[in-house]
Each structure stands twice: as C-alpha cells, then as structure tokens.
Design a protein that fits this description.
By secondary structure, this protein is of the alpha/beta class. It is built from 22 helices and 16 strands.
Length: 519
C-alpha cells in the first residue's frame, strides 16, 4: 500500500496555534495504527481562521480539514481522514473553498502547495522559468519587460519598478547591489513573511533577475528581526539555491555572478524606510538619509542600489515567465497586476487574498472576510498599515487602486487591512498613531520627533474637553507641518490616521456640531 501524502503547514501562523503538535500527533497515531503516510510541511494557504489546516491528497484532489488541534487527530483518522472522509472539520476540496477559489493568485500560486525548501517542488511548479527566460535576454530587455508590465513597488510607495531598475542599470560604478527590504513592520501585514517562509525561491529568483537586469553581483535580504522562521527558511533556501547553481559565480551556466546574503534587521520600525535600512545594513544606527542622492545612484556603501520589497521582487518571475502583457492585463488604470491584501483585526475570516486591483473594500470585508469576528457592525477599517487612513463605510465602494485611494486621502500601502467594530474608540486610535510615531521616530527631523509628541498632548486636551475647537485647529496645523516638513513617511504619514479619525468620527473626540463649525 502506497503512503498517503498529508500536508501540515510550517508557517508561523500555523505554528502559533499548534501545527507542530498536530504533525507529531499524525505521525505517532498513524504509526500506531499501521497507516503509511508521507508528511509534507508546506506553507500556509493563507486561510488563517482555519489553521492548523491539514490537507490530504486524494484522487479527487487535496481535501482540507481545519482548524485541527492535536486532540482531533484520532477522531479524524477514525472518520477516514486518509481517504478524505466526512468529518465536522472537513472543508472540502481545498481549491474549491470559496475564499481561495475566488482569488487571482499569480505571486502566491504555489503558496501552500509545495514544500518551501524543495528545489524539485519549486521547479515542478514553474520555478526558475522566469530566470531561464531572463538569461536569454539583454539587460535592457529584462528592464523593458518589468517596465511594460506596469509593476509598481508593493512596499507602499508604488514607484514604478522599471524606472528604478533602469536608473541603476544606466549608472556607472565598480559595484552594484540588489537589496530586498523585508522589514515588514506594518500592522496587519504578513505577505512578506508568508513568502519567505512558504515560497522563498520565488524571492531569490526575482532578486536574481533584478541583478541580471542592472549588473549587480551582490544582494542582501534585510529581514525583520521578529521573523525568526523567515530568517531560518531564507538562509537555508539561499544555501540550497547556491549549491544547485541558481546563485553563485556561474548562474545556470550563464557566466553571470550573483551572491545573496540574509541579514536580520535592527528591530526598528523606521528601518523599513529604505535609506534608514541602508544605514542599518552598513552597521550604523538606522537614521533616515536626506535625498538626493537617491539610493539608485548612491545607495548601499555609496554604490547604485536597487531596493524593492519582497512582493515586488516576488512578482518579477511570473512577469518574465508569462510575459509583461499577461501581468499588465490584470488590474485597472495605472495599477497593474495583483496585490496580496491581508485581512486582520476584528474580522471573521482573517487571511491573505490576492486579487487584481479594482475590487472594493466592501467586497474584501464581506465577500472574503465575512464581516467581524465579534458579530458587531464594522465601524472603521485602517488600510495601509499604522500610517494608513481610517476608511469609513461611505468610502468602502471606492476601487482599491493607487490613484483612487490617493484621491480620497488614503493609501493602499502594503495591502494591510485592519478591521474595527463599533466598539472602537477612534480618538484613542488616533492618539496611538501619534504615540507610535513618537516612540519609533529616528529623531533626525523636528516635525516627526517633536510634532508627534505635541500631537499626543493636543489629542489629550481635545478628549479632555479643554477648549476643543481651538485645539482641533492646532491639531490640524500640526498635522500639516508634519506632512510637509518630515524627511520620510514616518512623520509625513502619521497625520493620515489622525485626520481621518477626526474627520469621519468627530463624536469619538467629544466634538459637537458647534465645535466642528468653530474649528
């Protein structure tokens, strides 16, 4: 009798709810019963409310069960788990679960399907196809594909990747670098972590293609210090890819050289800003640099440097493998391709949803998220991380598109979606934004360093009832100064959540209609 293949995720989210214990229980219980199984530790599918999600390979396809705890294993086996048998935890054929079936997975198409560290698995699912294509092209041809695809930075700034790559490619220097900013610190975001833990070779492939495009021979992956599993998985993946010839002195026999190293970040939110990250990589304190010069001209160690985040680089292999037009055909307006939206906070079905730009927040919140976990009405949704605006229901039908969100004073950022129900205190959340900025500021510029501290004080005076109308005027002036005068997005975007909370939920600040008219 051949062994039945069972999949148990090794993703951090699954580990946090007992995936290792579930895997151990499956192995021991099947051994006790004389059942032959092959256990695969895959990445997560991103259906986090169902973790630990156990899948079993059957002739009809992979059948999912979840959320599974170690104590559920005997009953699952009694119910015919190895044959895809019926049980209360059975979710059906994995690919047919609506949350997954309604997505458009390009970047995350292998996520949860393969063993993350298996080179054979990666290659069997179109891995390295983009790199092999890139090797046949001139550098300008690679840059042309990325440019025509319309790929924009997925880290939040949405700057066209092709323009950045072209700038570095045209720069003359003895050394060029490719740096991946994997210091994913935004609240409610985890797509970078999922990629590094669940499909690390995709990131390596994307960075290697970038190196071929710009003439770089050395790269670094700067990973958030709170991601130990991602650091370990990426380090092992780099070692295996190098040994197999996908990295190193002679990439796939092409004569091109590209070495890649993993670096653990400094534990500072502001190091997510590219120039502060470069300072940290150079062994210095992570403080924002004044620009110009741009990192594409003078970046790491003063040399031309391509800096993109994980999802930007991870989007490149499919562009090269399937063609720029294939990728460009997804999305709307100037927002091409897909974005992994990450549902978090008070939401019933929290998880990752990869969709083309153009769907609405309402579709995400109810079509995928299922409303709040508490069962109470949704009050506010913060889009784009801790520096993103709070989006009220009146704007939930605005298309999720870079330009459309800019037009309403919001940002898509890294795709983080944090849901709050009607018990949320928006004044308290606005205060937290200012306090977060005060704590995490690198201190280099006055608007961020001092403005955030004054912001906390002014919000306290508003909620305390002290001359509210005048304090609101002061708060708006302070926010304008931070937006216009800060060196980076840390201080420049902190006013977004503050002003959006003030504008859309004035009652939470204790403001009356008279106060609002006076302000």
């Amino acid at each position: 009798m051949s062994a039945v293949k069972i999949f148990v995720p090794r993703d951090s989210a699954a580990l946090a709810v007992g995936a290792d214990e579930v895997a151990a229980a499956l192995v021991s219980e099947c051994e006790r019963r004389g059942f032959a199984i092959e256990l695969v530790r895959n990445g997560s599918r991103g259906l986090f409310w169902l973790e630990t999600l156990v899948e079993v390979a059957t002739p009809q396809g992979r059948v999912a069960y979840g959320p599974v705890m170690a104590e559920d294993v005997p009953a699952l086996l009694d119910a015919g788990l190895l044959q895809g048998g019926e049980h209360a935890l059975r979710q059906g054929i994995t690919e047919q679960i609506p949350f997954l079936a309604l997505q458009e997975r390009l970047t995350f198409r292998r996520m949860g399907i393969t063993d993350p560290l298996s080179l054979a698995d990666y290659e069997a699912h179109d891995g390295w196809a983009g790199l092999r294509k890139a090797i046949t092209l001139e550098a300008q041809g690679i840059v042309g594909e990325v440019t025509h695809a319309g790929l924009r930075g997925r880290g939040g700034a949405a700057f066209p990747a092709g323009i950045k790559w072209k700038t570095v490619a045209h720069a003359h220097a003895p050394q060029k670098y490719v740096v991946c900013n994997a210091d994913e610190g935004d609240s409610g975001t985890y797509s970078d972590r999922m990629t590094m833990e669940g499909d690390p070779y995709m990131l390596i492939e994307g960075m290697t293609i970038a190196a071929l495009a710009v003439g770089a021979t050395q790269g670094y992956v700067y990973i958030r210090s709170e991601y130990p599993h991602a650091v370990a998985t990426m380090s092992e993946a780099v070692a295996r890819a190098t040994a197999a010839g996908f990295l190193g002195d002679n990439i796939l026999g092409s004569g091109h050289r590209f070495a890649l190293e993993v670096r653990k970040a400094a534990g500072s939110y502001v190091c997510g800003e590219e120039t502060a990250m470069l300072e940290s990589l150079e062994g210095k304190r992570g403080i924002v640099r004044a620009k110009p010069p741009l990192p594409a001209i003078e970046g790491l160690f003063g040399q031309p440097t391509v800096i993109n985040n994980v999802i930007t680089f991870a989007s490149v292999p499919v562009i090269l493998a399937r063609g720029a037009q294939f990728y460009r055909d997804y999305g709307m307006g100037r927002s091409h391709g897909t974005l992994p939206f990450q549902l978090a906070g008070n939401v019933k079905h929290g998880g990752l949803v990869e969709k083309a730009f153009g769907l609405t927040l309402r579709e995400l919140l109810y079509g995928f998220g299922g409303g709040t976990r508490s069962g109470r009405p949704i009050k506010a949704v913060q889009v784009g991380g801790p520096l993103g605006a709070y989006v009220p229901e009146s704007q939930w039908d605005v298309p999720l598109d870079y330009e459309a969100y800019t037009a309403i004073g919001a940002v898509l950022g890294h795709g983080g979606i944090v849901v709050h129900d009607d018990t949320a205190d928006m004044a308290g959340l606005a205060r937290y934004a200012m306090e977060f900025c005060a704590i995490e500021s690198c201190g280099k510029c006055t608007p961020c360093r001092i403005g955030s501290t004054r912001g906390v004080e002014v919000i306290d005076r508003i909620t305390g009832g002290a001359n509210r109308a005048q304090q609101v005027i002061l708060l708006r002036d302070l926010c304008e100064t931070m937006v216009s005068g800060s060196l980076c997005a840390m201080g420049g975007m902190t006013p977004f959540p503050v002003l959006s909370a003030l504008d859309h939920y004035p009652q939470d600040f204790g403001l009356t209609s008279d106060d609002r008219e006076a302000a």
